[in-house]
Amino acid sequence: MKTLTVAHSPDADDIFMYYAIKFGWVSTPELSFENLALDIETLNVEALKNSYDITAISFALYPKIRSEYALLRTAVSFGEGYGPKLVKKQASKLKRNFKVALSGTHTTNALLFKIAYPEARIIYKNFLEIEQAVLDGEVDAGVLIHESILNFSDELVVERELWDIWKELCKEELPLPLGGMALRRSMPISRAIVCEDALIQAVNVAHTHQGVLSKMLLERNLVRVDQATLKKYLGLYANEHSIEMSDLQYQAIDTLFEIGFKHGFYDQSIKARDYLIPKEYDALRNS
């Protein structure tokens, strides 16, 4: 049996979407999976090194790893009228060159932020440390991601929603592409298809049995939030739209890549569908 490594972030939506496999609810006869949890910027950096068989990534990173990784159709997180938040202390006023903490240089929120605030002075921190950095005055502002957007100090206020930056840039009613999954291109196609199908099934099973799985995650202290916050968070980022991408989601990703290309972040503009695993391979091989 071949063992493959799945790297994902420690935030609740990634844990939720993977753990149907971890708990044995989804399996394949020829493959087994081992997982590890790393913060999103570490995942992005490791993807640039081609470190893991399957890995969570920021969608904004994908054009830079397209030659090494295929884009998966599942375990995706999009914002629909919400997303990362730029926060600051109450009553403070940000200068044009304000100092800001971001969760990583390759994240989608960093791409949008850099376009909107080209003169800001950026430092990078683990996403769990950003709120405190703003409170301590280490930075003037910070972009909160993951569960941090739901519960943060009353001393802080939202300066700007990154969703609003996205709307201004894309000029269409499209969801905001945040996180996705990628799989090594060096993997045999038939095995890659089995992997993707297992992950699709895991996300589907997790969504279908959200109550049971959430209870198990909470009882085992596998997530950092309480029951009410977990339910709300999963409604945002691990929902029916996470199981398998739609036409609208592909359009949104393509728009993100086009925006990044126009602003000099990528060497060319690409289309997401051109980089998927060719699921028709098995049917053609057996025909």
TrEMBL record:
Its EC number is 4.1.99.29. One of its GO terms (biological process) is menaquinone biosynthetic process. It is an enzyme of class 4 (lyase). The active site is at H146. The keyword Lyase applies. The keyword Lyase applies. Pathway: Quinol/quinone metabolism; menaquinone biosynthesis. Gene3D superfamilies: Periplasmic binding protein-like II. One of its GO terms (molecular function) is carbon-carbon lyase activity. Catalyzes the conversion of cyclic dehypoxanthine futalosine (cyclic DHFL) into 1,4-dihydroxy-6-naphthoate, a step in the biosynthesis of menaquinone (MK, vitamin K2). Belongs to the MqnA/MqnD family. MqnD subfamily. This is 1,4-dihydroxy-6-naphtoate synthase. It comes from Sulfurospirillum halorespirans DSM 13726.
